Amino acid sequence: MENMVNIFLFGKKYAVPANLTIMGAMEYAGYQLVRGCGCRNGFCGACATIYRIAGDRELKVCLACQTKVEDNMYIATLPFFPLVKQVYDVEKISQSEAVMMQLYPEIYACVGCNACTKACTQGLNVMQYIAYAQRGDFEACAEESFDCVMCGVCSSRCPAGISHPQVAMLARRINGKYLAPKTEHLENRVKEIKDGTFEELLEALMQKPVSEMKELYNNREIEK
Amino acid sequence: MVEKRTAIYTEEMLESMKKVEAARAANAEFEPRRMTAEEKETLLATYHPDYKQSEFRVLEIGVNKGEKVPTELAALLQANSRITADQVDLNKIDYDVDVLIIGGGGAGASAAIEAHKNGANVMIVTKLRIGDANTMMAEGGIQAADKPNDSPAIHYLDAFGGGHFAAKPELLKKLVCDAPEAIQWLNDLGVEFDKMPDGTMVTTHGGGTSRKRMHAAKDYSGAEIMRTLRDEVLNRQIPVVDFTSAVELILDENGKCAGAVLMNMETRELLVARAKTVILATGGAGRLHYQGFPTSNHYGATADGLVLGYRVGAKLLYADTLQYHPTGAAFPEQIYGALVTEKVRSLGAKLVNKNGEVFMHPLETRDVSAASIIRECTARDNGLATSDGLGLWLDTPMIELKGGEGTIEKRIPAMMRMFGKYGIDIRKEPILVYPTLHYQNGGLDIAADGMTGVENLYAAGEVVGGIHGRNRLMGNSLLDIIVFGRNAGQQASEKAKSTEVGALTLDHIAKFAAEAAEAGIATEVVSPKLLPVYDHGNKNVVKEAF
Ligand SMILES: Cc1cc2nc3c(=O)[nH]c(=O)nc-3n(C[C@H](O)[C@H](O)[C@H](O)COP(=O)(O)OP(=O)(O)OC[C@H]3O[C@@H](n4cnc5c(N)ncnc54)[C@H](O)[C@@H]3O)c2cc1C
Ligand code: FES
Asked: Which one of 3.40.50.720, 3.55.10.10, 2.40.10.120, 3.90.700.10 gives the CATH number of domain B11-50+324-436?
């Protein structure tokens, strides 16, 4: 017999194999998931989940697809959380601190409780990246928040009502578009292509018989 | 990022791990030779799953009648519709748009942005949420020949050869020529590519590339692209109808595609969307688990687009070729089949068998690498048993030997986290891998304008076949969804301007059913499949197909 544990899905008890993830355990118990399941591999943030091990004071959070069940785990999924996403025109947006004041003024109401950081399913320093955003240091905010999967658990714990993932999203787009260094070789190449620099060469390749293409391919020089 | 050890290695694994460790320094130095063209051919024919004839079936109906496709796909292509025409009132239109986009991944989002830019009234309908898609999961990166030592022509040759000389030249040309602009477009939307302080892109090799042209955003490349595209779709206030699937396309009286029947995934309510043009961007098929393989794909990857298109007469190309990614996680079982990005090998980790021997060059093309791993584990018996199957080592600590301490955390944080959750520190220990079902090489046949054989039905992204031939190189799919997603959005919105939709019909359903009956096909299966069903071995719960 497999090693089984008892878990409580929304309060109801199920015995499930100990080696399953929470997501797998829900399916084992008989659920057909529609909500709360996206990539099944820790990238999309669809499966945010809150749990408590019976007897523990601490409430824990995780991604259901990335976390093994434990005995006496009380589980509630959080398949949706009403984050606020402000609409803006990325072509016209200001790159100064003022933009945060304008779009997400609630970040300045942060009380410093650090509940967001404790709640992050990715182990990010959420309060720190919000502090960077407050200061208009978008590069640091972008770097610190980079691994965010936007599951929204941080926001569910925030007394100030901050939508942390959306704040970070804005900072990353400003950083990627305006603050990161420009890439000259990219601009050059786009221009060369527009000018038709490679046109003849490509047309010639497209006309070649497969035998000749094989020859070229098998003997092509490979950069070390 | 490394937690308490919960993964439990077998004795055999621990013994073998010691051998890998002992040989590491020498293995890291060792430069294995690449296989010759003949060696590769024999290897593929003997060990690649695409060559296992018993796993394929010949289609008996539809436009590809007489061609072989995987057994699981044949069952869905020749299955019954989820609906009959009389269940749907085509006079009651729930959504009326210029361009209907089916699928909220990278291809769908790119198409939506461009169609919107072109002034179209556009809507996205998607099975789960926007971004719950294979695009979100891409780790490694995106190709573009934008460095001085590279050119679109070299990119073309790499992709054409890697795809076994089967790509449609006009599509591949578009892919490589529009690549730099695609990167620029993403960069201008705010995607954070890895760059040097002077702005030079950090680029690496991928399997089968002859120049370092893989651009990345750490190992969250797809996530960074997808969340940015999603943000832009929302900024443009393009309507996104989520948790809703297309279950049947709608044609007009002139045989042009003119919308889709949609189904709310939670309430099962049916809705009618009418459109002047339709773009299928439904992605891949990993969740069909061909030949019993695990998969790296998202939950909704069930080949729906192929089924929807096939039923209205859109032709498939190379639907018999799948990509098995050489390195799926083989251990621990909780992440069985999950992707270990090729970038791990790009950065210097080599494949090592149970005796601690490097048995191949780590950056052969994917099909060759997968076949080689299968051979090493089966015929040569140099693999290790895991609870779900077999596996061999990918020696990740070599990355730090080569690139210096900290390289792993900086360049592949997602990988470090994925294994770290089970207490495996990939900076210090190798990991076990085995091929996983990863990508649908084939799909709907399109022309360079993105249109399928059915007028006003466009397709973009993984649902398309022909761009890559019979095998796709790493980094060319993220590229293709941007290039051909944008293209489809531009073309479909332009075409919509001159389109008058005639009376809507669902006659094709009965017609297809009649063809099936005539061919003697009797089946209980309905399609598109929409979602897989998993019970993890619990036979006490009876689950029906979704
Ligand atoms: C783990 C992983 C790693 C990868 N790494 C790389 C990489 O490093 N480089 C690279 O180039 N490529 C990579 N790929 C491949 C690449 O990410 C995908 O091929 C590509 O993103 C597919 O984009 P898409 O928009 O066509 O499909 P998807 O992104 O899968 O989007 C399809 C969307 O359509 C929806 N849908 C499906 N059926 C229906 C329906 N009936 N009705 C409505 N909606 C529907 C889906 O739910 C989904 O939202 C990777 C893939 C995976 C799975
Ligand atoms: S399902 Fe995507 S993070 Fe868990």
From this structure: 3.90.700.10
